[in-house]
Every structure is written in C-alpha cells, then in structure tokens.
Design brief:
mainly alpha
Length: about 280
C-alpha cells in the first residue's frame, strides 16, 4: 500500500496552486466583461485533466491513519489514571506522615500522655532571687501561683524544652496543619524546605528557629489557626507579614512572643492574672 508523504503532498499542492492560477488567468483574459455560464463550466472542467490534481486526489484517497502502538495506548491509560500530583518543595516529604489535620486538644493530649521526664528535669519554674531582690519580691511582688496550677505551669515549661522531632508523626502533623491553614494549601509539604521561609522562618529547617520557646511556639500557632475565632485574624496577620511595605517574619514574631510569655511566667508576673484552679 502506498503511504502518504506530507513533504511530497506539500510540493504537489504548491505546484498545483501555480498551475491553477495560470489556468484561471487564461480563463479571465477576454474582451467581453460578461461570460456565459457554459464558458466557465467548460474551462473549469478542463482542470480535471491536469496530472497534478489527479496525483493529489490519488494520494488523499490512499492515505490511512497510522496505527497507534500499544505503548502509546498504555501510557495514555496510565496518565488518565493519575488523580493528582502533590508538589513537594525542598527535601522529600515523610511518607509515614498522615495528611490529616490535627486539633489543638489532640496535640496537647499527646504531650500530656507522653513521657517528658527527661525534659522536665531541665525546667526552672521560677527565677532565682537573692538578698534584697528576694525580699522586695516577697513583700511587694505578685501573689504566688495557686498550688493547683503549678503542675500546669510545669507542663507548659516542659513543652517549651521540647524540640521539633521530624520523626514524630504528631510533630509533623502540627507543622502540616499550620502550613495548610495559613497558606490555604490542600497538599502536604516537605518538613524541610525553602517554603518555610514564606511563613516567616529563617531557614529551611523549622527546628532551628524554635530556640527559646521550643515546641510551645508551634502549639500556640496551632491554637491560633485551629480556633474558629482566631483563624481569620491569624490569616490576616500572615498576609500582612508578606506585604511589600509591612513585611515581617510571621513565625519568628510568634516564637519571640512565646519567649517573652515564658519569661513572664517564670518571673511570676502572670500569677495575678491567672484564674484559680477549677474555674
């Protein structure tokens, strides 16, 4: 069977157009401004005898579509079977990390049940005062924290001693939840990567920016984005932090505020504003 060649068809079309143009020019040369239909029909019928047009007709009639190979069909089926591709930035995302969001109460319960004895040994619930400073604090300082709240205070300070562990699924879910809620993304992101700089961290590894507040800073961010009353405010502050004039590191600002709050807690400056236990 004769195959259709696009290059030969192009040359035939070009030659045919030139011959057709010459035939029409001859047909148009006449002293009479009007022609009878019989004259046009007789001249146009002569075009059928040209070999170029006959060759073009033969090539077109003999052309058949190329048979699609089985590899192409298989590749097309595999492509159609793909649902979505989740982009990853930076290092490879943890495949064991679940993509489900985590609530603040679930994350807090994790720290209430896990063994934190090694971190609790490092805490210093109150700052040490000596001589006149201790006497002035005793006489004129804020009231002492209620006995029933000291255990909760110690838990807060213990969580502040905990660092970010990328191998812990709960830690990874907290990071993913904060990222998704602030950016509006529906996809998981890598735990390491430059995308964390967009949230206001200094480096590609969030663990290096939690010094001074530890995982407590991430818990506070989680509460901010998971509470319906504060989510809109958190998103507005985040968008303001990326403004070309008002830009500031959103997450670093939150870490610094947490560090100030921890210092105030240790100095017992928050004892007077703390509600009694059980209230």
């Amino acid at each position: 069977m004769r195959k259709f060649c696009p290059k030969s068809a192009h040359n035939l079309c070009l030659t045919g157009c030139l011959e057709l143009k010459s035939v029409l020019r001859i047909a148009a040369d006449s002293n009479c401004p009007y022609r009878r239909p019989q004259q046009y029909s007789s001249q146009i019928s002569e075009l059928k005898n040209h070999g170029i047009l006959q060759a073009l007709t033969t090539e077109a009639n003999e052309w058949e579509p190329r048979v699609v190979s089985t590899e192409v069909v298989r590749a097309q089926e595999e492509w159609e079977a793909v649902d979505t591709i989740q982009p990853e930035t930076g290092s490879q995302a943890n495949s064991e990390q679940p993509g489900q969001l985590i609530s603040f109460s679930e994350a807090l319960q994790h720290f209430q049940t896990v063994d934190l004895s090694s971190f609790k040994k490092r805490i210093q619930p109150t700052i040490r005062r000596t001589e006149l400073t201790a006497l002035r604090h005793y006489l004129f300082g804020p009231p002492k924290l209620h006995q029933g709240l000291r255990e909760e205070r110690d838990l807060v300070l213990t969580i502040a001693q905990c660092g970010l562990n990328s191998q812990d699924p709960v830690h990874g879910r907290v990071l993913q939840t904060i990222y998704k809620k602030l950016t509006g993304s529906k996809f998981d992101c890598a735990l390491h990567g430059d995308h964390w700089k967009d949230l206001g961290l200094q480096g590609a590894n969030p663990a290096t920016d939690l010094r001074g507040a530890g995982f407590l800073a991430l818990l506070h961010l989680l509460y901010l984005v998971m509470d319906s009353k504060t989510l809109l405010m958190a998103q507005e502050i985040f968008h303001l932090s990326r403004h070309h004039i008002q830009q500031f590191p959103f997450c670093l600002m939150s870490v610094n505020i947490n560090h100030i709050a921890i210092q105030a807690l240790r100095e017992e400056c928050l004892s007077s504003s703390t509600p009694p236990a059980g209230s």
